[in-house]
Amino acid sequence: MVDVLNVNNNTAVLCDFQYEQQTVSDGELWCDSVWDSVLCWPRTKASDTAKLQCPLAKGVDPTKFVEKRCGDDGKWEGRNGTQDSPMGWTNYTPCYTSETWFLLRKIYTGNKDAAEVIMEIAENTRTLEFVGLSISVTALLISLAIFCRFRKYMKSLRNTRTRIHKNLFVAMAIQVTTRLTLYIDQALMKSAPLGLDHSIHNTPILCKATYVLLEYARTAMFMWMFIEGFFLHNMVTVTVFQETTSYRMYRLIGWGLPVIMTMTWAIVTALYYPFTCFYNYNLTSYFWILEGPRMGVILLNFLFLMNIVRVLVVKLRQSHTSETEQIRKAVKAAVVLFPLLGITNLLSMAGVPLEKTVWFALWSYTTHFLTSFQGLFLATIYCFLNGEVRTALHKTMFVYLSRRNTVDQRARRPSAFSACQSHRITSVIDTDEDELRSCGWIKLCCSNNRNTPSLDRPAESVEH
Description:
Number of helices: 15
Helix content: 55-70%
CATH superfamily of the largest domain: Rhodopsin 7-helix transmembrane proteins
CATH class of the largest domain: Mainly Alpha
Radius of gyration: 33 Å
Distance between the termini: 89 Å
Strand order of the largest sheet: 1-4
Largest sheet: 2 strands, antiparallel
Structural class: mainly alpha
Number of domains: 3
Order of helices and strands: HEEEEEEHHHHHHHHHHHHHH
């Protein structure tokens, strides 16, 4: 407690020293500079209202202004115009965000239970978000490893569609990893002892650079979502489409355009945002430099999705399927494409429904679940359930089991295995599935049947 008092006293002295050189007119009444335990207020002429930008704090909108009025007698006014304190009263009410002000009203009106429930829901959704992001980044990294591992073996994975998937996975993995790093840093700051300054949010340059990286990765993720929607739309609706001619343009849009957008936003925010870090920057009007194009991407992808579903319904009707089957497949396609095309992000951009606890809980859990597990959805749909990837995995498993079986046969019959070595396939992954099914080299070399034909006989003469 003594240390806190000393800090406040020292800060008040520094506040007086800061405005010591401020000139005032003779014969006029002025309120002296004062430290209100949060902000340092300059000398203010009587009957005037001083304004300062709101402080950087959780639940506060730093783009708004806090007010403090100097009375007619040259003394700082209290809450109701009285002068109950030398430092007067500072009106921080305009600084609060709508969510914070809603909770404060609940507390002031005696409805503390509702406020506590909302706070508990917010804490639970942060835990849900942390778990979802951790699972998503793991799934994305596994998917990237699979795509890179089997690319040289499977020609079907060396196409523009798979390249777009990989770029989207990379952008999302960077965004998720950066967000997790910031969450962990915030958690460590809360649990750390007072005075700890070795953290991202207490290092101005590192803090700004981290948020710039976060927004760049998020913008790139939206751009690659747009490319996914555009490419899929063309594949479904256009009969002739040269996919190899546009990949350079895709990379320029996916990685180059976000650089221009993010640097523009970062420069403008650094010039007009007078804080050491970009905390609560999403409340500023400058954030629309990034958020506006993102909402445009979501709108375009939504239009792409509607047209894709329309084309699918037309094609299903032409195939003489039942109406129920048509609706089922169309809805299934829409549900599968929604996470990919980023339409679920509309929920996070919408206003928070705080008036009713039930609606707030439903909105909060749904929004954080969809956004945090989006990486897992993408990895599952476009990698783990991908037929080409599953074929590559099956072939790899076939190679492993075949080689293991060959080793076992070698332990039992060394001479037979030696003969097999001259005819064994070096990599079954390079062989098509039909060739694997019709290949009889295991039976030729490793069969225990006495009637096994000689290796000098051609394989085509063997009856399977």
